[in-house]
Specification:
This protein is mostly helical. 59% of the residues lie in helices and 0% in strands. The protein is elongated.
Length: 87
């Protein structure tokens, strides 16, 4: 069982999910429009924003992704729940 999470947890997780959605959509668009400079700029801006938000989230709540995409705290905190996909 995990303790109750604060509103900021859900707000940051929601923002990450929204940015991920935008990045997926831009990726699909850019697959068929690879020379659209404005879309590339948007993609890069959202990718940068996501990196910053993910870093802030992980420093407060723990890792988002395994396989070396997210660092672990010390002690190992991958066994701490809930994981983002569980809420």
């Amino acid at each position: 069982m995990h303790e109750a999470l604060d509103e900021a947890y859900y707000q940051q997780l929601h923002e990450l999910q929204a940015i991920d959605f935008v990045l997926v959509e831009l990726t699909l668009y850019l697959d068929t429009h690879p020379t659209d400079s404005q879309a590339i700029q948007q993609f890069n801006a959202y990718a940068h924003k996501r990196k910053e938000l993910a870093h802030r989230y992980e420093s407060q709540y723990g890792p988002l992704m395994q396989f070396g995409h997210s660092y672990s705290g010390d002690p190992w905190n991958w066994n701490e729940v809930p994981w983002p996909w569980q809420v």
